[in-house]
Queue: 3 jobs
Job 1
Amino acid sequence: MGSWAGAELSALTPLRALWLTLAAVFLLTLLLQLVPPGLLPSCALFQDLIRYGKTKHSGPPRPAACRAFDVPKRYFSHFYILSVLWNGFLLWRLTQAVFLGAPFPSWLHGLLRILGAAQFQGGELALSAFLVLVFLWLHSLRRLFECFYVSVFSNAVIHVVQYCFGLTYYVLVGLTVLSQVPMDGRDGVVIHCNHRIPFGDWFEYVSSPNYLAELMIYISMAVTFGFYNLTWWLVVTYVFFSQALSAYFSHKFYKSKFVSYPKHRRAFLPFLF
Ligand SMILES: NC(=O)c1ccc[n+]([C@@H]2O[C@H](COP(=O)([O-])OP(=O)(O)OC[C@H]3O[C@@H](n4cnc5c(N)ncnc54)[C@H](OP(=O)(O)O)[C@@H]3O)[C@@H](O)[C@H]2O)c1
């Protein structure tokens, strides 16, 4: 049982391969952005696919062909609507499985097996997955609330590929949590829609504390999984590099737009990066 479980723990399942690939792609993309300009050829489509929102327009000129695929960034709310519904459904099924012993529907069971769900016994993992799914659902609900009542979206845009990626992401992340179960204020007044230098709290240390907080949320989920869950650490690695990339662009955007931008402020990690 021990060595079998050990083999399970280190197996490269389809989900692990996916998260590993995503993490590697975002790491490579981040490294490419750190290469001094001029050393590598610039590709407008590539830049269009990796930048979104306010940092899209600080890249190279965007050809009309790229602009044709623009989707309003306010559509971010769709990600969280989908996540609340889909992950709410998964949470409901998992609650029934953990507390009432009800089996998953056969299509879901089959899907989880294909994706590489854990095969070894371990009741405590099911409880950890339940807690992580509760956190993920609450997080999505909070983000949905933020999209509707806190965030003031300008006319910023995202590429339709990024939009589809965002939708797929929240479906996959819920399935990843479930695969760990062993088988058997917008109430204020809007003054303007310009991007200003944010100040206070964590903003004194980094340009994008929201991206840093996102990373910490996923790390806290890894802790809930008992710290040694390789699959979830791959999700965390992906979130790390994708948020580092967005934070890097955001930081460059602020530095190019505001001459008085605080010099000591880092992009993503206080004092480091
Ligand atoms: N897990 C993942 O893979 C993943 C991926 C992407 C995002 N996220 C999370 O989703 C959340 C939102 O991401 P985001 O990229 O939309 O964050 P963001 O660019 O910081 O935007 C958040 C809100 O603040 C506004 N804003 C941004 N910079 C501003 C400034 N300097 N002055 C005034 N308003 C400003 C934005 O307006 P505009 O939209 O008009 O700029 C938007 O309404 C974050 O918590 C992020 O971590 C997670």
Note: The chain is about 60% helix and 0% strand.
Job 2
Amino acid sequence: MFELITMDEAGSYNSKAGMIEAWAKGWAMARGVSAPVRDHGAFRIDPGWPDQVRRYVFAELNEGFKTLCREIHDPCVFLKICAAPERVKAWLPEPWMIESPRFMMICAKPMHPLRPLLPGGYRLEIEKSPAVSVIRIMQNEELASIGRVVVVDGYAIYDRIETIAEHRRLGLATRVMTELEAIALEQGGTKGVLVATAEGKSLYETLGWEVYCDYTTAVIRGQAGHC
Ligand SMILES: CC(C)(COP(=O)(O)OP(=O)(O)OC[C@H]1O[C@@H](n2cnc3c(N)ncnc32)[C@H](O)[C@@H]1OP(=O)(O)O)[C@@H](O)C(=O)NCCC(=O)NCCS
């Protein structure tokens, strides 16, 4: 379980609510869905996808979270919250379930190592945009590694960093991240934020990122296995 980093330690990340709002906005931009709105003390996003109808992002456990747990009976509505899984579980009635752990991470220093060389046979593709920038690493015409970044209010939100299984541990995601960082800095995104899987956390820690808080997801699973 991770305690929230104190304001001093977090430096420029001194407004948790501001950071979560930027994160929610950046996530919506990166996924091409409409911007978050405030609802039940959370930021609500309505992707309307079969596997994710809606999501609520909470900076903390509050009454709004409790109300939604009681009122929502449909599957594929996700409650995302900056709190440890054990705490969230204690608030959840049946049939809500907790997803595997995630970590909100931050980085306001230059990442290291700086743009490592690609192994032979790999090629970089850079798609820069004021909205969502994408870095791809290709081998022949096949995708080997990918990641996106969006800059919102000085925050750089990194999204869906992935290396295809057979190309892992070659430094590709490191290169993707450092290329994304260069774009983010050009666009004024100096405060990095992302939500990491356990695997991603290991990668980001090697680049200098720190865990800011646990990020827990609760959902009612669908019968058809959509979510
Ligand atoms: C996490 C992921 C993106 C890493 O991609 P990658 O291209 O293999 O990463 P790199 O080769 O740049 O790794 C650099 C360093 O990060 C650390 N690291 C990366 N993956 C790790 C893992 N699975 N376990 C432990 N350390 C890991 C290591 O220190 C590694 O250096 P080393 O190989 O010399 O030990 C990849 O495993 C992946 O796509 N996983 C599935 C999707 C996912 O979880 N994405 C993260 C979303 S937040």
Note: The longest helix spans residues 16-31.
Job 3
Amino acid sequence: MDRLKDKVALVSGAASGIGNATALRFAQEGATVVGFDVNEGGEAWQAVASCAKGSDFLTGDVTREAAVISAVERAVEKFGRIDVLVNAAGVSSYGATTDVDEAEWDRVMNINLKGSFLFAKHAAKSMLQQGSGSIVHIASIEGMVGLNGQITYGTSKGAVIQMTRNMAADFAKSGIRVNCVCPGAIETPLTAALQDESMRAMKQQMEEAHLMGRFGEADEIANAILFLASDEASFITGHPLVVDGGWTAGTLLSL
Ligand SMILES: NC(=O)c1ccc[n+]([C@@H]2O[C@H](COP(=O)([O-])OP(=O)(O)OC[C@H]3O[C@@H](n4cnc5c(N)ncnc54)[C@H](O)[C@@H]3O)[C@@H](O)[C@H]2O)c1
């Protein structure tokens, strides 16, 4: 119940999916949560707000440095510190190398990579003054294995994994840990397009790629993020934690 007692956590992408599940999980563990999203928090955020009274929700775009600075400043002004940053804002993207246009490449890199960089850069300035902090990025197993038709998304997530290592090195002597989670396919609005009849075969193939034969739930990723964010992970930094129902562990043969 109290794994994040008295901690202040800033969570981007908090209006939906993994970010929202993480914000709620953090609130249940005693954190004060500042949510940030380009969309309004809506009902999903109400569950967090009613669990962690005094928590705050800000709208803004992670790709705009001014919006990121203002969110970090507001969190520090209101709550005095930022102990945990979770970068869960992100978008999917489909297309093979010769099909992706420049605008789509820039959109996805800006949100998935630059947005996480900007939030870490500015939250870390506050964490450096405290001499402590934990940053958790959300990468993907698609940053570790190559899938066809996913050039932009997979490349953005591979870069997030490497950014995690570089940031861990930058802050290792300053009491700030930086890790990322690498989820398999998770049931959230991001993968909702796979519910369409035309995508049924692909969805089934993806389910079977997980040794456990199913997509994960947002709560299952939130629990891994909670672990990395908390003091229980005090000797873990620069680590990509795979949470993928066995997708990257191997292949099930029909014997
Ligand atoms: N769902 C999956 O299968 C899966 C698997 C691996 C990794 N991930 C990653 O997890 C993270 C969360 O994804 P999700 O599945 O919860 O998706 P989601 O669509 O449910 O939530 C993403 C949130 O990010 C917000 N967002 C998007 N662009 C933004 C911007 N420019 N500024 C601020 N907020 C913005 C959206 O409004 C949304 O609320 C993403 O980085 C995604 O790539 C998801």
Note: The chain has one domain: 8-241.
